[in-house]
């Protein structure tokens, strides 16, 4: 692998895929993985160089497919080519994500107001307000149209 940076400068945290990439139907999975590989090197504003041969062996596809996926990602505006001298192509990611390592994921419970726990001897003990239970919705569609139902369901 020929990369123009120290391996420790790569921001590789695992295989977390941002929702916007995961749900995107314009791009196939090989292109998504290629983008995430480029993004992991260039997230901090740096460029990276990976040969088409390396990418092809990494993804188990042909070098021609790699070239097509790079062109596709450039046309979508996900990456840009910062320099190319005929042999080496330097790429960088143009997308930014709001995910930060170390920040807890927001939950419904974490935003609820806290109250002092009545009857506790320790005045620092707090509890979270309970969320009111929602009424259960009846499944009226099961009660309707008995004439078309199978006797097994009765």
From TrEMBL:
Q: What is this protein called?
A: Helix-turn-helix domain-containing protein
Q: What top-level branch of life does the organism fall under?
A: Bacteria
């Amino acid at each position: 692998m020929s990369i123009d940076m120290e391996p420790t400068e790569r921001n590789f945290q695992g295989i977390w895929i941002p929702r916007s990439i995961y749900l995107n139907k314009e791009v196939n999975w090989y292109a998504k993985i290629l983008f995430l590989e480029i993004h992991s090197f260039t997230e901090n504003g740096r460029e990276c160089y990976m040969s088409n041969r390396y990418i092809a062996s990494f993804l188990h596809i042909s070098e021609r497919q790699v070239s097509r996926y790079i062109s596709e990602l450039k046309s979508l505006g996900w990456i840009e080519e910062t320099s190319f001298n005929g042999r080496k192509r330097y790429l960088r990611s143009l997308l930014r994500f709001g995910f930060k390592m170390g920040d807890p994921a927001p939950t419904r419970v974490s935003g609820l107001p806290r109250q002092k726990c009545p009857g506790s001897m320790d005045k620092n003990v707090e509890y979270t307000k309970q969320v009111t239970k929602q009424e259960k919705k009846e499944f009226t569609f099961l009660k309707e149209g008995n004439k078309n139902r199978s006797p097994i369901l009765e």
